[in-house]
Design brief:
The structure is a single chain. The chain is about 30% helix and about 15% strand. The chain has a four-stranded parallel sheet with strand order 5-2-1-6. With about 140 residues, it is of the alpha/beta class. The chain has a domain of about 100 residues: Ribosomal protein L13 (Ribosomal Protein L13p, Chain: A), CATH 3.90.1180.10. Helix 1 packs across helix 4. The two termini are about 30 Å apart.
Length: about 140
């Protein structure tokens, strides 16, 4: 028997759409990360970028469990002394609702050279309108379960 190795020329990138309304952030981020990395395909190869494009709509209607809106804290540092900025999930959600999903998916992808390439195929929109109808995206939650 031979072991199958997918090549870059054989990789195909499908389009999926996800409605985030009423979905939990962590569960949704896991499914999106699997689709971006291509792990849901039977031809998955670790060193080949065979993931799919994912369009997320209604990011402003995402749900967090318990008291995570106030207890979940995101930090960033400017690099200067005293440059630490801390924001809660609610503060980020009020200004940029799509960033919560982007940060969660980024944290669930492996930290290697392909992570930034895979994240370019993620598109998150706060409302129901998106500009990718020409690609005829399929529903991700029905395809991958």
């Amino acid at each position: 028997m031979r072991t199958y190795q997918q090549t870059t020329a054989q990789a195909t990138h499908d389009w999926f759409i996800v409605d985030a309304a009423g979905q939990r952030l962590g569960t949704l981020a896991v499914r999106i990360a699997r689709a971006l990395s291509g792990k849901h395909k039977p031809t998955w190869t670790p060193h080949i970028d065979a993931g799919d494009h994912v369009v997320v709509i209604n990011a402003e209607k995402i749900e967090l469990g318990g008291n995570k809106w106030e207890q979940k804290v995101y930090h960033r540092h400017s690099g200067f002394p005293g440059g630490l900025t801390t924001q809660t999930a609610r503060q980020i959600h009020e200004k940029h609702p799509e960033r919560l999903i982007e940060k969660a998916v980024r944290g669930m992808l492996p930290t290697n050279r392909m992570r930034d390439v895979q994240l370019t195929r993620l598109r998150v929109y706060p409302g129901a309108d998106h500009t990718h109808t020409a690609q005829q995206p399929k529903s991700l939650l029905e395809e991958i379960s």
